[in-house]
UniProtKB/TrEMBL annotation:
Superkingdom, taxonomy of origin: Eukaryota
Residues spanning the membrane: 47-64
Region (Disordered): 1-20, 439-461
Lineage, opening ranks: Eukaryota, Fungi, Dikarya, Basidiomycota, Agaricomycotina
Biased composition (Polar residues): 451-461
Keywords: Membrane, Transmembrane, Transmembrane helix
Protein name per UniProt: Uncharacterized protein
Length: 461
């Protein structure tokens, strides 16, 4: 029928409801490749983050550790009291006491002045050939000056001249002060100053002492030999004139606090100078060992090291904190024509520069030297006679450097050539070797080490 033309004659088919909305996973070729690339980018980014963190840690590790240690030290260390002798940085040793006084010295009053100060003096004779001469101060009220001179007579005794100045307000302290001759054992002779251990309430109650040790004058062309001279004089300035040609000390020990130690020139088999918050300065000649130790102050020294026995080297040690070290060192300066000699030099400080120069050295000598600081430059200038290895360390952004200035003269006068090899281990570390070619059969292989942080380390060859 016509009316049915527009209708399908196919059997009736049931109509299904459309599917619910949901995500459909359609495989796309190459998708897994993009995922792998993304993972590689993530791994690469993590690697560079780790590398950057490691580099920053290496860069700032030493300053961080140093500052943390310094902070912890301040928290755990008792505040330093200049009047507390128990806090002095001294080697533990038995010290004479007031009960060891052999005799109390009598004072001679000086004519009065109109400045409100009173003065007196006394003297004490000491055998210059004693096993040990010593000067000691204990208590909280003594300070002053210790001086050595060579204007005495030709007797066998040294003379200690002691002066005292005090204000009227210190008369109570003076009444409880003892100055005496000490003879604790056979061969030991000394002067002791014992003031009260009360807490000091200012300079007005302090007693100002001056001690002059007057050595006898040696006969013509002779040198006065002093076995041992020791001081333990906190808050005393020390000054020694030029005694290098007229006296030699077998052992010299000068100890103070908050005061400088100055030496124009001395000769000693062994010497130790120790102070706190005071500069150490002078010219020293030693054939065994020299120690210069302070803190919060610089060291300025001209040192002559003498050595004739290579089995027992001559040693120099300089140590301070927050103070620079500037030193010139001559090795066997009076006998440069004789090859050989063994020497050890160590210079250490923190937060301050080191400038160490070796001015003289014989050929075929052995030198082991080190210079260590932090946050400041370190510079060492070696003598051309030095042969051996060297190693320099600093931060990567202030790399160490080795400077060798052209040809230098052969210390043996044989026209040999100097060979310098420098190897940069990494940025911030340099190693190398220097020597004369052809090498002499008696040549020694020494070592020079420099170390600092956040500043350059420079070795001049």
């Amino acid at each position: 029928m016509d009316s049915d033309k527009g209708h399908s004659t196919e059997p009736f088919s049931p109509q299904h409801a459309p599917p619910r909305y949901q995500s459909v996973c359609v495989p796309v070729e190459g998708l897994h490749v993009g995922e792998e690339v993304r993972r590689k980018h993530i791994r690469r980014r993590r690697f560079w983050h780790f590398t950057a963190c490691a580099a920053l840690l290496l860069l700032f590790w030493r300053p961080i550790v140093y500052n943390v240690a310094r902070f912890v030290s301040k928290l755990t260390t008792k505040h330093w009291d200049p009047d507390d002798l128990c806090q002095l940085p001294l080697r533990p040793q038995p010290m004479p006491r007031l009960s060891d006084c052999e005799s109390v010295l009598d004072w001679t009053t000086d004519p009065g002045r109109d400045d409100g100060w009173f003065r007196a003096h006394t003297t004490l004779r000491l055998p210059v050939d004693a096993e040990e001469l010593f000067f000691l101060s204990r208590g909280n009220f003594a300070h002053g000056v210790f001086v050595v001179d060579h204007s005495g007579d030709s007797s066998d005794d040294a003379v200690a001249i002691v002066g005292i100045e005090y204000a009227r307000s210190a008369e109570g302290v003076l009444g409880n002060t003892t100055v005496c001759y000490l003879h604790p054992s056979e061969g030991q002779h000394g002067l002791g100053i014992f003031t009260p251990l009360w807490p000091s309430d200012g300079l007005k109650n302090r007693l100002e002492f001056s001690i002059t040790l007057r050595l006898p004058t040696p006969a013509s062309n002779e040198v006065l030999a002093i076995n041992k001279l020791k001081t333990h004089l906190p808050l005393f300035v020390h000054h020694l004139p030029d005694l290098s040609r007229t006296a030699i000390f077998k052992y010299l020990s000068l100890t103070s606090t908050n005061s400088p130690l100055t030496v124009e020139a001395i000769s000693a088999d062994s010497a130790t100078l120790t102070t706190v918050n005071g500069v150490i300065e002078g010219t020293f000649t030693t054939n065994h060992s020299l120690e210069l130790i302070t803190s919060n102050a610089p060291i300025k020294a001209e040192v002559h090291l003498i050595n004739t026995d290579e089995r027992n080297g001559t040693r120099l040690r300089m140590s301070t904190k927050n103070g620079g070290i500037k030193a010139s060192v001559a090795l066997n300066p009076d006998d440069l024509e004789t090859p050989g000699g063994a020497f050890s030099v160590d210079a250490r400080t923190y937060n301050a520069p080191i400038d160490l120069v070796f001015t003289d050295a014989p050929a075929n000598s052995l030198l082991n030297a080190s210079a260590v600081s932090s946050n400041s430059p370190v510079r060492v200038a070696a003598h051309p006679a030095f042969e051996g290895t060297f190693e320099l360390h600093s931060s990567w952004f202030t790399p160490p450097s080795v400077v060798h200035n052209g040809p230098v003269e052969d210390p043996l006068g044989r026209g040999r050539k100097r060979n310098v090899l420098v190897n940069t281990v990494r940025r911030g570390a340099v190693r190398g070797q220097v020597g004369w070619e052809p090498q002499h059969r008696d040549a020694k292989n020494g070592h020079i080490g420099l170390e600092t942080s956040n500043s350059p380390a420079t070795l001049v060859l």
